[in-house]
Every structure is written in C-alpha cells, then in structure tokens.
Write a structure and sequence with these properties.
3 helices; six-stranded mixed beta sheet; rod-shaped
Length: about 375
Amino acid sequence: MEHRRRWRKSACCTALIAVSGLSACQEKTSGPQNPPTAVQVEAAALSDYAPTIRLTGEVRPRVESELSFRVAGRIAERLVNVGDHVTADQVLARLDPQQQRATVTSADAAILSAEAVLRQATSSYERQKALLARGFTTQREHDQAQEAYRTAQASLADAQAQLGTARDRLSDTVLRAGVAGVITARNVETGQVVQAAQAVFSIAQDGPRDAVFNVNESIFTHELADPAIALTLLSDPAVTATGAVREVSPTVDRVTSTVRVKVGLAQSPAAMTLGASVIGEGRMQPRKLVVVPWSALSSASGQPAVWTVDPGTKAVSLKPISIEGYETGKVFVREGLQPGELVATGGAQFLRPSQVVALAKGAAR
C-alpha cells in the first residue's frame, strides 16, 4: 500500500511539471506581434509645369517649284546638275527643235500665200467699187468682191497668228530657270523624250527659308509661352537663328502619324544651307499640376500608380494615375491624385492594399 501511494504521488508531480512546461511554451509563442512596416511619405503638391519641346527638323526653301517644257520632244542638251545655283535667264536644257522649225517654215509660207490672196482680193474689190460708182457693175458683184477681200484679210491675220504660235513653240524648246535659285532635283537625261508639262527640274528659289518639323499632333493641345522658336544647327551649335510658326499642315501624315509644321526663319545664316538639320526649341505655357517624387511611382496592372496613405487609419491603397510629363526627380500627374494626399516615397515595394503602416521618422505628417 505504501509503495502504491508513493507511485501515485510521483505521477501527480510529473503531470504538474508537464502542465507547467506547456504553459510556459504557450506563453513564449504568444509573445508581442511584429511592428507595422515603416514607410516614408510625402504630401503631393501643386507645381508649375512648363515643358520645353525640342525637335529635329530640316532647312527647306520657302518656295520650291518644278520646271518643265511647254512642248513635247527629245532632250538634245542638259546644261545643269543638282546643287547648281542658276540665274533667272540661265538656260537649263534644250529640246531637238527640228519639228518646231518646220512648223515655223510652214507658217511663213502660209503668210506669203495669204498676202498674195489678199492683194488679188484688194485689186478686185477696188475695181468693183469704182465700176459701181459709175454704174457699170451690179451691186451683187460688188458685194461678192467685198466679201472676198474681207476673207483674205482674215486669212492673213490667221496665218500671222499661226506664225506667232509656231515661233513661241520654237522658243519653248529652250528651258530657262525663270527665277534665281538652286537646282534640287533632275528628272531627265539627254536623249530622253519628254511630254509637255513633265517635270524636268526642281528649283529652290533664293530668298527666305523654312525649318520644317514633323511633330506629334498632341503638341497642339498646349500653347507656346513665346511665339519665337530658337533654332540651332545640329552640326554646329554655335550657329543659331530664330523663327516663328508660319504654316501648320491641316492633315496628319498617314505613314508617320505626324503633322508637318513650317517655321519661318527671320534670317538665314549662311551655314544653315538647304537640307541642313536643325534643332527647334520652344517652351509651353506653364500649368499647375500635382507633382510627386519619382520614387513614389509604382505600377498597377501595367499602368502607372502611387501608394497613398490614409492619415487617420495609416492604411495604404494603390491609386492609378495619368502622367503628364517627367523632370529630373519629379513626376507630373495629370489625373488621379489630389494636392495634399500622402504618397509613399520609400518602402513601397513591401506594401499591399489596406496594409497599416507606420510613418518613418522625418516623413511628412
């Protein structure tokens, strides 16, 4: 009996020790929870946004035209090449004039024939007029002679007009520049047969120049702060000029989806030759936009977003935004964010929606 009582007493002690150890383990595992994630935040603020637009363009002539012969024929001589500077009366090319010379000869012969007919008709009419005055002819014969005389006069005038046309066509076999400028294109070679009005040369007329740019149509949603456009020669930044927008194309190019803009140069430096590449720079009117640090930028379903912090609950949420533009260290927000909202600028990579965070020391409150 004594042995059994000792065994029971020992079992009870063992059970108490086990319970005490389990309680101690439970107390150890149910210790204090991890502290909230600390993030740095900053209040979104309004700032002036006045972006500078820089585009690359090309110097082009203000007026560029195509030159062509007024008559068809075979080119007998070509006297200029692309890049040559020509004067207004300079001969550029000639056609074989054989056909036009034959036409002039035929017109000369037609005049001689018409003059002979007119002399005969004049003599007959004068005779009939004199006989009628003395009563030795009839009125009918007199009228017929008068009609023949007038017809001969008209035939001579027509022959003279034909001769003038033939001589003009002969002179049209010589192509002159008409204006001073630079030949920018040549479309024919000696021996080639061309039709009337077929483009033979292109000439850039001397005078004012334009800087031509192909720009995205979205640029026209904003206004320039200054109509003056600063131009810089790409190959030599020391060469500069100023200009103003002179012409904007009313249509969008189907291939490039851009709009052509022509900036008229106030003065064209000698170094800004035709075809030279230039950089055009213009500043837009300033606008008030919400600005946040670049470190606040995140992504939501592939779109830009920022983590905002509720100042009361300290809970975070991912808010999509629309971006207007970028500057060094700054992101300008067009839509999706209001001034004064707290955005996470540090530690955002560890956040999840509705997570409660702690504001890091030194962060905006």
